[in-house]
Design a protein that fits this description.
alpha/beta; ten-stranded parallel β-sheet; nine-stranded parallel β-sheet; globular
Length: about 475
């Protein structure tokens, strides 16, 4: 009998499920040390943008000024040459996701092929080929297209998906998965009719592909990731959530989007008992929660959620729900309740007795309640805890129309967020969706895309060095297991 010692790495043992990986993950995204300061900064930027717009109207006596008071849009839309300065967008985020770089500093990648035939060996020119690359990329579309995914679209870090100038729809299997990545911007994309997929190999980088179990069918799934910004997208009709962020994800801004036709809209947090989600920090700003929504706008577990200057136009069950003691800071929103007298309450403490939630920090400040809507606040000493957040008064919700008028995918003549039939174009590869009860119409986005496809300065990224350091440090977790073997 001879004793042998086999060296086994922790991360190999835990690689059998995403939950196990997250449990042993030593590199959880780090939350902002003082979230109230971020809240204060959001309100300062909104107030500054509103003031600039009002000042221009007074001095120029012009109601057609480009400025809207929305600090994100005013940062880039008023530049007539924005198509040739696309990466300026990366400087325009607010809130907890403001540090998302996306593909800033990287080359432009032009999607010329709308197909998604092979999830393991994607063709150059396809969207899947772009998002798995290790270097920063700013991904654009030269024409309108419908991309029907066969499997979930797994992103690598430092990517911007920029749909401005085209009418881009992503549908099908998955759809978008952000798993253990950082610095991703998704802008001006229709994401809808996402279904479950999986039980197949899917590539996540040029050097790795692996077997994926069945996905939930989320529009956008954020898993163990940080520095994520989702802006000016239209989301609807997905199997599970429209946006889910779980497993220690943080540094997220969800802004200027249009949500409609869905049951469970947004989930923030894996479970009540998953402690890493305590560090989750999410800003939800300038969104329009539109027709035929039921619940979860969002549904929060743990974390700090700032809900500011959104328009909630009815719900069927509730708007904002939570469990596991999340902090919810609601400022300057408009909540319009449904006609159902049993569904007037904005808030819902899910599966929790009042004796357990009365100390949770849920606060409404400057919100407008319409059609009998009411917000049940809670929290002992909440005024002290939120002192910094309220040092800048939230902009009045009477300006909600102005701040959210362009929510959703941008198009000529303003926002048209009714879902529907896809106009088949040169890149669509088929007839697409037909009209019907479950399909609504989008007008084609007719702005001409301009801008050079010449590469910018060489992309800067320290992600490779960072990954190497993490990989090397994981060997510190080695331990030995004595085994016996017959000679």
């Amino acid at each position: 009998m001879l004793s042998r010692h086999y060296i086994v790495m922790f991360f190999l043992l835990s690689s059998f499920s995403p939950l196990a990986i997250a449990t042993f993950n030593l590199t959880f995204p780090t939350p902002h040390p003082n979230p109230d300061v971020v809240v204060q900064d959001v309100q300062r930027r909104v107030n500054a943008s509103i003031s600039r717009r009002q000042t221009l109207q007074i001095f120029q006596q012009d109601e057609t000024t480009c400025l809207t008071g929305n600090p994100i849009d005013d940062c880039w839309k008023c530049d007539p040459d924005w198509p040739n300065n696309r990466q300026r967008l990366a400087d325009c985020a607010i809130g907890f996701g403001q540090y998302a770089l996306g593909g800033k500093g990287g080359e432009y990648y032009i999607v010329t092929d709308s197909s998604d035939d092979d999830a393991v060996t994607p063709k150059p020119g396809t969207l899947r080929y772009a998002v798995i690359q290790p270097e920063p990329l700013w991904i654009v579309f030269p024409s309108s297209m419908l991309i029907k995914l066969k499997q979930e679209l797994i992103f690598n870090s430092y990517k911007t998906l920029d749909g401005r100038g085209a009418n881009v729809h992503i549908v099908g299997g998955g759809c978008i998965t952000l798993q253990y990545v950082s610095n991703v911007i998704i802008h001006n994309i229709h994401i809808h009719h996402c279904v479950q997929s999986g039980e197949a190999n899917v590539r996540s980088s040029p050097t790795h592909y692996g077997w994926r179990t069945e996905s939930d069918g989320d529009g956008i799934s954020i898993f163990g990731s940080k520095d994520i910004w989702i802006d000016h997208c239209s989301l609807s009709h997905c199997k599970d959530g429209l946006i889910d962020a779980v497993m220690g994800s943080t540094g997220i801004t969800i802004s200027n989007n249009y949500f409609s036709h869905h049951n469970e809209v947004m989930l923030l947090g894996h479970s009540d008992d998953y402690e890493p989600d305590t560090g989750m920090q999410v800003t939800i700003a300038f969104n329009h929660f539109g027709e035929k929504l039921v619940q979860r706008m969002p549904r929060c577990r743990r974390g700090y959620i700032h809900v500011v200057n959104n328009d909630f136009t009815q719900w069927e069950m509730y708007a904002i729900g939570g469990s596991g003691n999340p902090t919810i800071n609601s400022q300057g929103n408009r909540y319009t309740a449904p006609s159902n007298h049993n569904a007037k309450e904005v808030t819902k403490r899910v599966d929790t007795e009042e004796g357990n939630w009365k100390d949770w920090n849920w606060r409404s400040e400057g919100d407008i309640m319409v059609n009998g809507a009411f917000f049940v606040a809670s929290g002992e000493g909440v005024e002290v805890r939120y002192e910094k957040a309220y040092s800048v008064e939230p902009k009045s919700a009477v300006l909600i129309n102005q701040l959210t008028m362009h929510s959703g995918v941008l198009g000529v003549g303003g926002r048209d967020n009714n879902l529907g039939k896809w106009s088949s174009g040169a890149n669509s590869g088929g007839t697409g969706f037909g009209s019907g009860d479950d399909n609504d119409d989008y007008d084609d986005y007719s702005d001409e895309m301009s801008g050079s496809n010449m590469p910018l300065s060489p992309p800067f990224s320290n992600s490779s060095l960072f990954s190497l350091i993490i990989a090397m440090s994981s060997f510190s977790l080695l331990y030995t297991i004595p085994l016996s073997s017959m000679l």
